[in-house]
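Key result, reporting period 2: structure in, sequence out.
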């Protein structure tokens, strides 16, 4: 059920990308959030991530395009890490609009040009013209109200690669 919420969030982002430009080919989401990063955050060895251009989920009616390989997923037996990158002409405006749309949120300083936790294991990070959505979820955990310290560490590390 938690995965449905995350996939719903990512699908909502996919359909709300007016003014979005696909991240340049040189930015691979699986290089921004690496297998080692995912393993550290999840506490178990993660398999290789897979970059995708579609969010696939039967409950959502199939695949929804999110741009050319802007999504990377690491799926394990204990949980998963997802990274979604988009570039925008006015990323700050998009970031501010997202924060209002996901209210109430919790802001976090010291991560890129801005970051907020939207609940359910999801964090949005602004860096220049890029917005990075990260999710860290565990199968045996109720979605935390505040960002897990492992998600914050993951965001701090990932944003340095944008």
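The corresponding designed sequence is given below.
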């Amino acid at each position: 059920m938690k995965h449905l919420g995350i996939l719903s969030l990512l699908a909502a982002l996919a359909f709300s990308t007016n003014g979005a430009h696909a991240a340049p080919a040189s930015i691979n989401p699986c290089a921004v959030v690496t297998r080692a990063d995912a393993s550290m955050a999840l506490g178990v060895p993660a398999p290789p991530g897979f970059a995708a251009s579609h969010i696939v989920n039967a409950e959502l009616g199939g695949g929804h395009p999110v741009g050319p390989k802007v999504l990377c997923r690491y799926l394990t037996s204990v949980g998963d890490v997802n990274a979604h990158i988009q570039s925008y002409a006015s990323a700050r405006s998009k970031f501010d609009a997202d924060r209002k749309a996901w209210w109430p949120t919790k802001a976090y300083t010291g991560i890129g040009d801005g970051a907020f936790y939207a609940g359910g294991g999801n964090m949005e990070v602004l860096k220049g013209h890029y917005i990075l959505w990260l999710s860290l979820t565990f199968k045996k955990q109720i979605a935390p109200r505040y960002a897990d310290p492992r998600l914050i560490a993951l965001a701090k590390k990932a944003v340095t690669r944008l």
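The two ends are 31 Å apart (CA to CA). The beta strands are 20-21, 50-52, 54-57, 62-65, 71-75, 79-88, 106-108, 114-119, 122-127, 130-138. This case is discussed further under Risks and Mitigation.
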